[in-house]
Specification:
Length: 334
């Protein structure tokens, strides 16, 4: 469950004041109807009577340390057959055995009569028969076919990835410099096991004379080996007395629209104060093995009802949808 009390920043607990739940849902629905913004409240409610404390900006971005030269290491722990992800095999099964998912040898079904050529396999095993091995240095066997695994460790963005492609997208620390919503990396810590921890900040930059919003529906698409672990509140939301709506079942400060998209509903059922410029939210992500899984990307999604009232949406989305890219193994060209 995402922690909503972030080192003294933001709202705490993530629980409900169930005594006035019906009232709070009613207020929420009324506010939504008033501004003709989103549909319903989905029986959710922000934390009641939660203390709002001062927010301090996370430490500045630190450069991760990487090993520029990493050879492909076979991955055969717990496997006795199948691909080693480096073009070879972890082992072969005995006659009348097959290599089951997970790299475990199991007895072949009595009616298993298929052959490698019947299925068009060039590697792996079929009914206990070895179909061959992959010869390329970056090849691994995937469902009977040799597939090249791109290698961008220690390379510069735009370099060849060894599979006929290039190492892209390039690492980018922010989506834009002067758009309405700026998403940027403010801290990054490299772990010894190849993982990293990244903190992103979302700042609102309205143009002069703009109508300021009372609430917001923010959506972010995340791809690659990245998992959201914490959400923190920025000073601009604290000043306005706003916070992300919490999920009624998980207590998380977001809603998952699909496997890649997070939704953050920023509002208050206690006031109708406007939200000004400055940092709104902080997001802490755990980044997995980008050396083999590729980069982690983070992009805001533009839609017609980001802000309420509607007049507050009269801004140019500009470059807000440009992705922030975290890929420690790849460097940008000078």
């Amino acid at each position: 469950m995402v922690e909503t009390d972030w080192d003294g920043r933001g709202f705490s607990g993530g629980r409900w004041n169930t005594g006035n739940f019906g009232l709070r849902v009613g207020v929420c629905l009324a506010v939504f109807a008033l501004y003709a913004m989103m549909v319903g409240c989905n029986n959710t409610s922000p934390t009641a009577n939660a203390p709002l404390e001062n927010v301090q900006k996370p430490k500045q971005l630190s450069e991760p340390s990487i090993d520029a030269e990493q050879a492909c290491e076979p991955a055969c722990d717990g496997r006795e057959c199948g691909s080693d992800l480096c073009g070879g095999l972890c082992g072969e099964c005995a006659s009348q055995e097959i290599c089951a998912p997970g790299g475990v040898c199991e007895p072949a079904p009595e009616d298993c009569t298929a052959r490698c050529e019947d299925l068009g396999y060039e590697c792996g095993e079929v009914c206990g028969e070895t179909c061959g091995t992959c010869e390329g240095a970056q090849d691994h066997c995937l469902e009977g076919n040799c597939v090249c695994q791109p290698d961008c460790v220690g390379r510069t963005c735009g370099d060849a990835d060894g599979c006929g492609g290039t190492c892209t997208p390039c690492p980018v620390d922010f989506n834009c410099s002067d758009c309405a919503f700026k998403l940027s990396v403010v801290q990054q810590e490299q772990m010894e096991d190849g993982r990293s921890i990244a903190t992103l900040a979302l700042a609102f930059n309205p143009t002069g004379g703009s109508v300021l919003p009372v609430m917001a529906d923010l959506q972010m698409r995340v791809t690659g080996p990245a998992t959201l672990s914490r959400v923190g509140i920025g000073q601009a939301l604290l000043d306005a007395g706003k916070e992300p709506l919490t999920h009624p079942h998980t207590g998380a400060a977001y809603q998952r629209l699909d496997a890649e998209t997070y939704r953050f509903m920023v509002l208050s059922t206690q006031n109708t104060r406007t939200i000004g410029a400055g940092q709104w939210l902080f997001f802490k992500f755990e980044i997995g093995d980008t050396a083999t899984s590729g980069p982690a990307t983070f992009g805001l999604l533009a839609h017609p009802h980001i802000l309420a009232p509607m007049e507050a949406n009269l801004f140019e989305p500009g470059e807000m949808e440009n992705a922030v890219v975290i890929w420690p193994e790849v460097s940008n060209a000078e």
